[in-house]
Amino acid sequence: MTGYFRRWTTFFCGSQNCERFVPFQGSKTSFRSHLAWAKRRNVNLKELATQRCLKSTTVVALIINTNLAILYNPSEVGDEIRAGLKAGDWRTMGFWIGIASSISLFLSVFALIANYTAYSIFNSLSTQNAPIILRSSIGRYTWQKSGDLVNHSMKSLFVVAALSYIEIAQPGPLGATFATIWAALLFWCLLTTTSLGHTIIHTGAMGHDPILRQSVEENMGPDQLSDHLLHQMDLARKAKIPLNYQYQIPFHYVLKEIERGNVDLPIPPDKLNNMRESQFTRKWHRY
C-alpha cells in the first residue's frame, strides 16, 4: 500500500517539483510544441493543426451559446441577473453570475476569433512548409495560445455553472458544499490529464521510437510500466535535452546511457549533433 501511494504521489506531484499541478504553459512544456517536433515530415502537420482549430471553434461556439442564453434568458432568473448587473449590486448572487457569464462570454469570443484566424492561417500553408512554421516561435505561440483560450473558456463556464447552481437549485450552505465538491472533482480531472500529458512529453512518447522493446513491455504489468515511466521522467528532467533534439536522437537510448553514467550532464550541443549519426542509432537497436 505504501508503494502504491508513493507511486501515485510521485506521478501527480513529481519527485523534484510540483510541475504536474500546472497546466501546459510556456514553450518548453507546451503539448503542441512537442507535437510539432515529434511528428516526422511525412505526417501532415498542417491537417493536424487545422483540425484542432476547427474542433476548438465548435466547442467555443457552444460555450458562447450557453452564456448568451444565461444573460438574455427571458425568465425570472435572467431578470435577476440583468438587474444585478445594471444596479451594480455586488451583494446579490445574480450580479456575480452575470459577471462570471460575461467573462466566460468574452473569453469564448476571443477564443473563437483566435482559433478561426489560426485555422485560416494554417490552412494557407503547404504540407511541406507546415513543420517549419509550426515549430517556429510565432507559429508555436499562435497554436498554443488559441488552445489556452479554449481551456480558460471551459473553466470559466464551470464557474458560471457552479454559481448558477448555488443560486437556483440549492441556495445557501448546501449549494456551496456541492459546488466545492464539484470544484475538487474538476481539479482532480485537470490534475489527472495534466499528469498524463507531462508523462507523455517527458518520456518522448510522441516520438516514433519505442520507449521499451515489445518483448520487455509485454512482460511487465501496469504498475511496473508506471514505475518505468516515472523513472524515465526523472532521467529526462536531469538530461534537459532541448526540444529540437529530443525527437531527432535515440532519446531512450540516451536516457539509458545517462543512467549507466556513460553520458555527462549537461550534454553539449556538439555531442547532441553527433548522436544523430547512424553508428549511435545502431546502438539503440541493441538496447
Automatic annotation (TrEMBL):
Keywords: Membrane, Transmembrane, Transmembrane helix. It comes from the Eukaryota. The chain crosses the membrane at residues 93-114, 172-191. The keyword Transmembrane helix applies. This is Uncharacterized protein. The lineage of its organism: Eukaryota, Sar, Stramenopiles, Ochrophyta, Bacillariophyta.
